[in-house]
Design brief:
By secondary structure, the protein is of the alpha/beta class. It has helices at residues 41-57, 96-104, 113-124, 126-136, 195-206, 214-223, 226-254, 268-279, 304-312, 345-361; strands at 6-12, 16-23, 26-27, 32-35, 65-69, 74-75, 80-81, 108-111, 145-151, 155-161, 164-165, 257-261, 282-284, 290-292, 297-300, 316-319, 327-330, 335-340. The strands form five sheets. Strands 1, 2, 3, 4, 5 and 8 form a six-stranded mixed beta sheet that branches. Strands 11-10-9-12-18-15 form a six-stranded mixed beta sheet, with helices on both faces. Helix 3 (113-124) packs across helix 10 (345-361). It starts with 5 loop residues before the first strand and ends with a helix.
Amino acid sequence: MNTEPLIFSLDAGGTNFVFSAVKNGELSGESIRKSSHADDLEKSLQTIVDGFSELKTRHDEPVTALSFAFPGPSDYEHGVIGDLGNLPAYRGGVALGPMLKEKFNVPVFINNDADLFALGEAMEGSLPHLNQKLHKAGSQKSYQNLVGLTLGTGFGLGVVIRGNLIRGDNSLPNEIWLMRNPEYPQANIEESVSIRGIQRSFRKLSGRNDDLSPKDIHDIAIEGVGKDKAAAIESFQIFGKNLGDTIATLISLYDANISIGGGLSKAWDLFMPAAMEQINSSFITPEGKQLPRLTHQVFNLENAEEFNSFARGDEKRIPLPGASEAKYPYIPKPRVGIMKSSMGTSKATMTGAYHFALSKLG
């Protein structure tokens, strides 16, 4: 008998709500898509109830819990949704979790989408896949921590330490978008590491006034000519430089590999070289001495040659003081890598919601 729980999940966006049933970490049946009714609270809440109710009619077994991503800032611990930019009807605070718990009589777990993305990648995505590749390459190294970044309309962060999602006392542990922006020090980093950041750079560099999509700008960078092509390439390089500055800080804080998802990750080859250059840059002391930006050696794991260097490492054997024969392993330069999401952002978020529910249900 299969005793794995059935979990209902929701991917809540400003335009659409997507409802899914998850069992054994995989989708159970097709997802349901409904309009979010972002400006009408009554319709929006009814849509959520209807979506989960429709999932119930499709399954013979009872649902064990609702576990899903919802935009913040929110008091996720208590299931209270705060003032949302892309869902204005929820401003002022809405006790969504308690409402759903009363309606469906099951536990309800709500988290930030970037947190669940990171958890999904840590449990079934980038992290275990990396360790499998390392083992296959003959490396004895195994990693247990992961930083997940989502690049799109906003800039999101989730951190998983040894299988546990960092949550914070106020459900706001990873507000990376509020870090200072090196390009515009008076602004936050999301103004540059986001869709609007690339669009702003392209308008400024090209002199054009139309708001092209990042995909349009990407296509110009690959296939365009002249001034527009140069502007498109530089726009992604600026994006990469700002992203790299933030990643360097995250590596120094968390000592963990980085997994990147979100729509903008598709432009990896355009922005990652600039990001890596920034990550591997140097500090200069007031006395003029040059120092490495990081203690770590950082690798772009989507590059086969860099992955091979990462897997090979530089471990050596050192003698035990006072003993003639004993040797102990020593890695003089700690190393971490940066990789793309191995699952896709949506599936990783859903998988994270499933595993978070399992952890809470025991």
